[in-house]
Specification:
By secondary structure, this protein is an alpha+beta fold. The chain has 33 helices and 20 strands. Among the domains are: 11-111, Death Domain, Fas; 116-230, Death Domain, Fas; 292-404, no CATH class; 713-792 and 800-890, no CATH class. The protein is globular, with a radius of gyration of 31 Å. This is Caspase recruitment domain-containing protein 18 isoform X2.
Length: 891
């Protein structure tokens, strides 16, 4: 029996160019005596990832570098990428003279044969990985029976942990096997699930001449079953588009009835218009040529070639593929617009004109708005993308460890994989957000964290918006469809209204009072009152609420999605994310969106929390309510003051009578916002049992997380304001906790991260709130004196000369200075009132109008990178700040 070909070298899958590269292996290795020039070309063509680049550079000698590069070409490059590789070799002949003779005999582009079914499966791989489910098993059997799958590979597919992993490994094998395996894959799919096959266009494969293994002129010497010994245990990475999550993105929902197709349903709506060709930039285009936007007048606006190309580049930089781009509402596109330099108002108007809340349409609108604002300067947009990429590399020490899984920009816009809450009977699976504890997420840099990604609760709310659109499309009557969609949107807006409501309104004075049911009108009024940026949109929706139609539903969905993005970012549920509001020029007010209210809540021991976690149930609304009551009963301090009567009865004891939990929730031991969500989940209203069940299950998870002992229950640093210094052109993009809150050496410590559009200087104002011996306190010492100078009425009016306060006020030290204000703190041992008096005395003779204000603790930061981290300390007497990543901090 002849020797088996090497793994990944099956003749039916190898194009002429890759075959030529392998046949010329030794000659290419001998010619590439210095590989840096070629690597630079491959990087510029976007066919070589940073991970592969670093792997090649890590080899000690030139010949090993060349062999490593060819190994990557052999195992990971598609035929299109190999074509780019050969083109780079041809353009490097002056640097590598030995290649001239070799390149004269390379296959010409006309000789390269296309593999339409392989390309079709490669384009649809991401969607199929999410939707195949248990169809993977029978398709695997058919491939095995036709000897297109080896025994070891079959076991490797079957032993994968999740349906997503099994589907991914099966598609991986088919792509390596080429046209025969891909054709058989679609034929098996038609047999197992005609509906899914029709959606995927599998019936079109009938018209495609599936190439046999003998197509290339070589005949296999033995069957695949006899060659299984050469198959490794670890799968080889292929070139088909990744989903952005390494094999653990498993989208599962409720089990369907037996008469429905067995493929996994998904809350994501996939665009049937998948791209038909690969991009020249080394990645599959996200946008098809037919994508258009709609102008305000209703006319269709077709994208130009430049706009489509730039939109593809942006989506690639954001690590979004075609299948996820249409359903990625979990990304705050307005925050991304600030990184590009567009104002929020400008970007929001562009998004409203585009009409649509999916990421693909919004990115397209944003690219068009940027080109319109810059006069069609495409290079300027590319420069911003490259600058963000360099910032990401600099923040990670110059190495991006996995470019396929990590975005080029320092923002991750992919929805997290949902965790599975199993009931233990019936195989019921409910989709919830991944349980990322604060310990995992804290301490990560902005460039590596999901600073603009929605939290677990945000994922649940986004799924409700998707269900609202699905309900509208599935309804036979348009009026009934709008009514059902608005019922679901009301739940989303109701949760947003709870996040916006002040604490005093959430703490109900009457123990028997109940939260009003979700209402679109009431929630829109709350948005109009509390969010100035969305006031106009909310008022417009209120005016059209009497006669809602499809356009109203689209606009309401867009507003709801943006509110979720802003209110439920990663970390916001645990007090580590701040909402930013522009109050004046270059001045930002920071509002923490948090469940970690400073209440003095003691928390439960780890053993009790573990037991509660094991006993929790969220199969249905009644079990969820019982689990919530069980946790609330356990959090009482003693049986005497436990209104639920469960303090001494153990974790599992829950009274059968209707419990009054308001007195416990209003006793000051719980955060007001969490209390309101718990009361909402405990309501017996039947309409919340279905669509809102995953949301209430997330409330249960939040309550369990909140019940843990944490320093955040009794102490919190609060960033109140950030003022950008040094003129316009730089903006604040994010403020968050970059490390856990800890008590060490008798002081409280926490690291806070600031993200700016580019390296900048800014002034931050911080205070702390804490509970001691049952009493609430606040501290903002040492305070600073702010001297404000009004702006000149016009540029033509010359400003009077300003007094040099640094020299005039010897009792104080200037912390920061801007064109309109100076901040001065008292020197050590000097009373703050003395500084205020000296400032007023120094400015008494000045002709320039001024105002003196007292502010809390402030510190100035001069950042050399886009992200700066500052360590805050509080020892009971005052706050101090220190830099942790090289930024200059002055207090």
């Amino acid at each position: 029996m002849a020797a088996a070909p090497a793994y990944g070298h099956w003749p039916g899958t190898m194009g002429p160019l890759k075959r030529w590269v392998l046949e010329s292996h030794e000659k290419i290795v001998d010619a590439l005596y210095s590989i840096d020039h070629l690597l630079d070309r491959l990087i510029s063509k976007l066919v070589l990832t940073d991970e592969n680049y670093n792997e090649v550079r890590a080899e000690p000698i030139p010949t090993k570098k060349a062999r490593k590069l060819l190994e990557i070409v052999r195992l990971q490059f598609s035929e299109q990428q190999v074509e780019v590789f050969v083109e780079c070799l041809a353009n490097s002949q002056t640097a590598y003279p030995k290649l001239r003779t070799l390149l004269q005999h390379r296959p010409q582009p006309g000789e390269v044969k296309s593999f339409p079914t392989v390309e079709k499966l490669r384009r649809q791989s991401s969607e199929l990985c999410h939707r195949l489910g248990d169809l993977t098993a029978p398709i695997t059997v058919q491939l095995f029976a036709n000897e297109l799958l080896g025994q070891v590979e079959k076991e490797h597919v079957e032993n994968a942990n999740t349906p997503f992993d099994r589907s991914k490994k099966l598609i991986d094998v088919c792509l390596r096997r080429g046209e025969p395996a891909c054709c058989l894959f679609y034929k098996a799919l038609r047999h197992e699930d005609p509906n899914l096959a029709s959606e995927m266009g599998a019936f079109d494969v009938e018209n495609v001449t599936c190439l046999s293994i003998e197509t290339t002129g070589e005949t296999p010497q033995c069957s695949l079953l006899s060659q299984v010994s050469v198959c490794p245990q670890t799968p080889v990475t292929t070139a088909f588009p990744e989903t952005g999550v390494q094999g653990d993105l498993t989208w599962l929902v409720r089990e369907k009835s037996t008469d429905e197709p067995r493929s996994l349903a998904t809350s994501r709506d996939f665009d049937p218009a998948t791209p038909n060709s690969s991009s020249n930039n080394g990645f599959d285009p996200v946008f098809s040529d037919s994508l258009t936007l709609e102008s305000l007048g209703g006319e269709s606006v077709t994208l130009s070639a430049t706009e489509q190309e730039l939109a593809n580049e942006v989506m690639h930089a954001l690590s979004l593929e075609a299948t996820t781009a249409t359903t990625g509402p979990d990304y705050d596109i307005l925050s991304f617009s600030e990184l590009l330099g567009l104002g929020r108002e400008h970007a929001w108007e562009a998004l409203q004109e585009a009409g649509g809340w999916d990421v693909r349409r919004q990115v397209t609108a944003l690219v068009c708005a940027f080109l319109k604002a810059t006069g069609g300067d495409a290079q300027r947009l590319r420069n911003k993308l490259h600058q963000a990429h360099r910032s990401c590399k600099a923040a990670s020490g110059g190495v991006v460890t996995n470019a396929r899984a990590r975005p080029l920009l320092p923002i991750d816009c992919r929805m997290r994989a949902p965790s599975l809450w199993r009931s233990g009977r019936g195989g019921h699976l409910a989709m919830l957000g991944t349980r990322w504890s604060v310990r995992i997420n804290e301490g990560r840099r902005f460039s590596h964290s999901q600073g603009f990604l929605v939290s677990e609760r945000g994922v649940c709310l986004m799924n409700l918006i998707s269900k609202a659109h699905q309900a509208f499309r599935a309804a036979t009557d348009a009026t009934e469809g709008v009514r059902e969609a608005l019922r679901l949107l009301a739940i989303v807006l109701h949760d947003c209204a709870l996040a916006l409501a002040p604490d005093e309104e959430l703490l109900l004075p009457d123990a028997a009072a109940r939260l009003p049911p979700p209402s679109v009108e009431r929630c829109l009024r709350r948005v109009a009152e509390t969010v100035p940026f969305h006031r106009e949109g909310a008022d417009e929706l209120l005016g059209d609420l009497g006669d809602p139609d499809e356009a109203f539903l689209e606009q309401a969905s867009m507003l709801a999605a943006q509110l979720v993005r802003e209110l439920f970012k990663v970390g916001s549920e645990r007090g580590s994310q701040y909402g930013l509001h522009v109050r004046a020029r270059d001045a930002y007010a920071c509002t923490p969106h948090s469940l970690w209210g400073v209440t003095g809540f003691a928390g439960l021991s780890p053993l009790v929390v573990k037991k509660l976690c094991r006993e929790q149930q969220s199969e249905n609304h009644e079990e969820l309510r019982a689990s919530l009551r069980r946790i609330l009963a356990r959090t009482s301090q003693s049986p005497a003051d436990n209104p639920l009567g469960g303090g001494g009865g153990g974790v599992g004891v829950v009274p059968d009578v209707q419990m009054d939990v308001d007195s416990l929730l209003r006793c000051g031991r719980f955060d007001a916002r969490l209390s309101a969500r718990v009361r909402w989940a405990l309501e017996p209203d039947a309409e919340r049992r279905g669509p809102a069940l995953p949301l209430h299950a997330q409330t249960l998870a939040d309550l369990l997380e909140y019940a843990r002992r944490s320093e955040r229950h009794s102490f919190a640093f609060r960033v109140e304001r950030v003022t950008m210094l040094g003129g316009r052109g730089r903006s604040l993009c994010g403020v968050r906790s970059a490390g856990p809150l800890v008590r060490i050496d008798g002081a409280m410590e926490e690291t806070v991260g600031f993200l700016t559009s580019e390296p900048a200087a800014f002034l931050a104002s911080v205070r702390c709130a804490y509970v001691h011996d049952g009493e609430a306190y606040e501290c903002a010492e040492p305070r600073v004196c702010k001297v404000a100078f009004p702006r000149a009425s016009s540029a033509a009016t010359a400003a009077p000369p300003r007094v040099d306060l640094a020299d005039a006020v010897s009792s104080g030290e200037v912390v920061a200075e801007s064109p309109n204000a100076v901040w001065i703190r008292a020197r050590e041992g000097v009373a703050f009132e003395s500084v205020v008096g000296d400032v007023k005395a120094a400015l008494a003779s000045s002709s320039e109008p001024f105002g003196v204000e007292t502010e809390g603790f402030c510190f100035r930061v001069e950042a050399h990178e886009r992200e700066s981290q500052v360590r805050l300390f509080f020892d009971g007497n005052g706050i101090r700040a220190e830099s942790t990543n090289g930024a200059v901090v002055k207090t």
